Fold this protein.
Amino acid sequence: MKDIDFVIFGARDWTNDWITQHRLAKSLSEKGHRVLFIENTGIRSLKLKDFPRVVERIKNWFSSTRGFKKINQNLTIYSPILIPFPYSEIIKPINSFFFSRILRFWLNKNRFNNVVFITFLATPLINDFIENTSHLIRIYYSSDNHEMASQNKKFLFSEKKIIDSSNIVFATSQKLFEKLKDRNKNTYKIPAGVELNKFNKSDTDTVPHDLKKIPKPIVGFIGGVNNKIDTDLILFTSKNLKNYSFVMIGESEKEQHKMLSKKENIFFLGKKKHSELQNYIKNFDCGIMPYKINKFTDAIYPAKLNELLAVGKPVISTNIYEVSFYNKENQNIIDIANTSEDFCNLIETNIKNDNEEKSIKRNLISQNHSWDKRFSLITNIIHKFIETKKLDNQNWEKNFAAEYKKIKSKIFKFSSILLTLYLIIFVSPMPYYIGQKLIINDEPKKSDVIIGLSGYGQQSYINNSYQQRALDVFYYYNNKMGKKIILSGRKQLVEEFDLMKALLISMGVPDKNIIVLNKPSSSTLENIRNLQELMDENDLNSANVITGSYHQKRLRIILDKVSENKVFHLVPETNINRDKIWFFEFSKLKVIIYETLSIIYNFLKF
């Protein structure tokens, strides 16, 4: 594996708390691999609290070579500048263009050839880059429930895409492993590991200067004090254990810091270098993991868990999923509290009854979770997959035949779907029966007026249907179904209603009995309102309405909504030819589709 280069898309910046993705980059580089670590490209839109990180990113960019900074001979960090809207359809192509252009230039310039992509994020930006860049294998390393962290439903689609396309998937917690293993058969659980060279039970006892004045016993927490932490639990515990000092090490968000710092026995020491943590833990009497219990925290593997155990300290935790699972495999080494009272009692009991034998047991358990073992497992899995892939590539005839078979299968499926759709739409009776649902055909009744609507529900809305509509109107007029006639039509070179009027007069209908709706209408709804105004002006209260058969359903829906104190009968056309049940005409199918969509639109609008 010596000739393999690694590109790691981190979910954190390089200077953030030291966790698995940092260890992995550093360890790979120390094994002789060239590594490019790309700092967090973002999984959600920017918030006010992110401003310090933005400033830090800009500083890193200007203090480096266009965002690239060499850490050692084999390890380079890239701090990209991006517009912080990772799911915006407008911003995505802009970010992708500049990000891909710069990154590919660097990879080509540095001759990264046999590349393994490892991503701790599953965003569209990273997906697109990996898919369009030559690589040996791709790995998705899921370290958090980013679905909740991203606060965007689009993340799910992006993560699904990268899970399905990855050659290997690593999960840091049991909950993530259970979620991912059914999606990708090459899924492995590889949690955070402890660097035993940094955390051990040596007798060296250096007390950091900011711990010297803090009274014992000390209950310690290491990590971000943010919305993952149960602040109510910490407040309750500090109130009930007034003689205990609660030391918080790590970055803290403003709201949580303000709430907790009011307590005299809670001390915030801020963020510390990872290499300094051992001296702080050695001076703890016990460690705590006061996490809230929710979907996000159930998917985390507390990175500091094994570090506390390596130094021999007792650990008290809330009952998050991963800690419960950890206990099953590790002799119930963690004391789990189910209530606030339990949390207090377990702190007191552990500090009071702690001894060297228990301390040694914790240290021995932590050795099973060393980073060296985790890293060895990761590299072995990658090496095995690459070797298998090489053998598969050598057997190209078998691969080609399998791929050809897959393509044939896809073509057959696609063709079958197209044929089925064609048969359903153009051959089967389905369009006919859908069309029948659009037809009303009320029984004609003697009314004040006959309304002829031309151009609605026909094969073409600019057409010659006015001729038949004039004949329909004359038929009902001749059969005494109305004393007056109202004509309405769509615009053509010559107005449809003028043409219908001329035809009716030629057939003997008196000019005085024909009313033309001259007011323009942009829709059926507007046309109906204009017709009602015209009926009011002429004291007409009932009508037989003639329109295209497939237009009747939509017209009825609109009339039921807007007509007031007026009666409308949607009567049949006089030249109705029975439609074919099978092999339905495409021209009529278009009208049915249009009318169906229009009905849906009107339903949503009203």
About this structure: The longest strand covers residues 447-453. The mean pLDDT is 89. The domain at 218-369 is CATH 3.40.50.2000 (Rossmann fold).
